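Hi there,

I know you've been waiting on this one. I reran it after we fixed the sequence typo, so this is the corrected version. Both the input and the resulting structure follow.
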Amino acid sequence: MNRTDFIIATAIVLFLAFLAGWFASWLFHRLTRVTQAGMGDLEQMAHELHEAEESRDRALTYLEERELEMTRKLAQCEAELRAAMEGLRISRAEADELRAYIERANTGD
């Protein structure tokens, strides 16, 4: 094998390697290509995801408003309870004073 034959053989091998690489690339892209139906599905999924995120945001907003409302109602109920307990304490003290007064009046007779 002389020099010219070696160069030709090397060129043929390199050209075949190039063709094999090009064919593998074409085959890979052909198999992994996204079709129009696939794009439609992706568009629909993106739209549904957007709607789900909006629903989640609305639900979170509603929960925050509801929690704030419940917190206000709880504070109001606690204030009313404190006022009622204070009124009950005062009423008991007055009842005790009246009992003591009545007992003194009855024993003093």
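Quick highlight: Residues 66-109 form one domain.

Best,
R. S.
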